[in-house]
Design goal:
Layout (H helix, E strand, L loop, with lengths): L11 E3 L22 H13 L7 E5 L4 E3 L6 E5 L2 H10 L2 H10 L2 E5 L8 H5 L5 H13 L23 H8 L3 H5 L20 H15 L7 E5 L5 H10 L2 E6 L2 H13 L6 E5 L11 E7 L10 H11 E14 L7 H10 L8 H10 L2 E8 L1 H17 L1 H7 L2 H20 L2 E10 L17 E4 L2 E4 L2
Parallel strand pairs: 1-3, 2-4, 6-7, 6-9, 7-8, 9-10
Antiparallel strand pairs: 2-3, 4-5, 10-12, 11-12, 13-14
């Protein structure tokens, strides 16, 4: 990759004092002098920023020595353009830094997930006034221009609670070929259900599809609505293995066309229907014995959750069951750096809230909460599988989309894996039924955990 910095030998420098002088107890063999003023100023800036940092993230300018808080860092942030480092010092804006990664002004080498461990340190970095003035002076000496190795990734103008077809298309209509590269064969773009950490993604996603069907207590002849059906994996699984009449709706044209092709290829046109339809346009009559929504309600908007759940309740038959599978967070919706990045580049209308808020709105909508289960650790494993597959398929991913898109999904999925792993994000399956009505589920939950052996067209089980 070309660089605005003059090339120099790479080395490793650890824990320098503010001002650029290495700590006295560091070996001189790690000290590598830069050959250009820009490289020298930039390396001194990185030393001052990481002076008190002891985590797994290192940094360097493209042609300068590595500055690290650990002997063997898990990843290295590479500033390919002096302007990217200049902006980080002058503006202290991590959102801008994320954009610089998307355009190639910044790179990350090594374990992408560990990059996010440095976020609290950079956010709370509190330099002395002398150190701040020194850093600002050095930053001003750097050229302001940035290189861009990719076309600028499309930014979406955030419109709160819009939940439109355009906002859905921004994420899901990237390219079916792009998603095929790193999803499982069923094309399930949601949290898998792992037996253990060594289980394959494909097997874990098949287990998740069947687990959802068991939680809904699906029976042959029932009607199932899937709100936000994606590429059709769940409705096809439920029709093939549980004999239901399945109806899937989505706002993604690419997903709709793909799901339609799968329905025809499997000969299930008389049993499975897919529509390009907004949930708000569902008919008024209670038409469905079971309703499921997987990874969709995060797009609804917090202020619209009440209307969303009331719509679900309206179209659910008496005695029916509804399962909502979606992401939550620990603090409710806030305009943080992370949420702004996601809204700008990834999910334009995405809003998250606490699981207690979700169940509260469901109860206000006259649902009875029957079962709540966290799958947080499962999503960490799922995201790590996706990320590893995406990184292994870099060239094909770029060919199917663009370099900027590849970088965006790499950054997004690595960050999601990190925050699910440390607990800021969670994901819950919430099973509910009409309040004040007879229940149609067993007294115990043992039926959820029996081992399933299913063949297309029938349902059988073994304990």
């Amino acid at each position: 990759m070309s660089s605005k910095f003059t090339k120099a030998s790479h080395g490793v420098e650890q824990g320098a004092e503010v001002g650029g002088s290495p700590q006295s107890n560091r070996s001189s063999r790690h000290q590598v002098s830069a050959t250009s003023p820009a490289t020298s100023h930039a390396t001194e800036l990185i030393r001052s920023i990481l002076a008190n940092y002891k985590g797994p993230v290192a940094a360097r300018v493209a042609d300068g020595p590595v500055v690290s808080g650990q002997v063997e860092p898990a990843c290295t942030m590479v500033f390919n353009s002096p302007g990217a480092l200049r902006d980080l010092i002058l503006y202290r804006d991590l959102l801008r830094l994320g954009g610089d990664f998307l355009t190639g002004a910044v790179d990350v080498e090594g374990d992408m997930e560990s990059l996010f461990s440095i976020t609290p340190y950079l956010t709370n970095l509190d330099l002395s006034w002398q150190a701040k003035l020194t850093s600002l002076a050095k930053a001003w000496r750097l050229p302001a221009d940035k290189i861009s190795t990719t076309a600028d990734v499309h930014r979406y103008q955030y419109r709160q609670q819009q939940n439109s077809q355009a906002s859905i298309a921004h994420h899901y209509d990237v390219s079916n070929d792009f998603y095929k590269l790193w999803l499982d064969p069923e094309m399930v773009y949601s949290c898998a259900y792992f037996r253990d950490a060594d289980q394959s993604l494909a097997a874990a996603q098949a287990d998740k599809l069947d687990y959802l069907c068991r939680k809904l207590r699906l029976m042959k002849g029932q009607s199932l609505l899937d709100i936000g059906c994606g590429w059709g994996a769940l409705i096809l699984w439920a029709a093939r293995h549980y004999g239901v009449r399945a109806h899937g709706i989505t706002l993604s044209d690419a997903q709709y066309r793909f799901a339609q092709e799968r329905v025809k290829a499997m000969g299930l046109e008389n049993q499975v229907k897919v529509e390009l339809r907004d949930y708000r346009d569902l008919p008024d009559l209670p038409n469905y014995d079971r309703i499921v929504s997987v990874g969709m309600f995060e797009h609804v908007g917090i202020d619209n959750l009440g209307a969303y759940f009331k719509t679900v309740k309206r179209v659910l038959k008496p005695g029916g069951l509804f399962l909502n599978h979606g992401i939550t967070n620990e603090n409710g919706w806030r305009r943080t750096v992370t949420s702004q990045f996601v809204n700008r580049y990834v999910f334009p209308d995405g809003e998250l809230t606490r699981v207690s808020d979700v169940t509260g709105v469901m109860e206000q909508s006259q649902f009875e909460i029957l079962d709540v289960e966290s799958l947080r650790r499962h999503y960490t494993l799922t995201l790590r599988h996706w990320l590893a597959s995406l990184e292994a398929q870099h060239d094909a991913a770029v060919a199917a989309s663009s370099e900027a898109t590849y970088r965006l999904w790499r950054l997004y999925m690595a960050g999601a894996a990190y925050f699910f792993n440390e607990g800021s994000l969670n994901i819950y399956q919430i099973l509910a039924g009409h309040a004040h009505q007879p229940l149609t589920i067993p007294l115990r939950r043992a039926d959820l955990y029996r081992m399933q052996t299913v063949d297309q067209g029938d349902q059988s089980s073994s304990s």
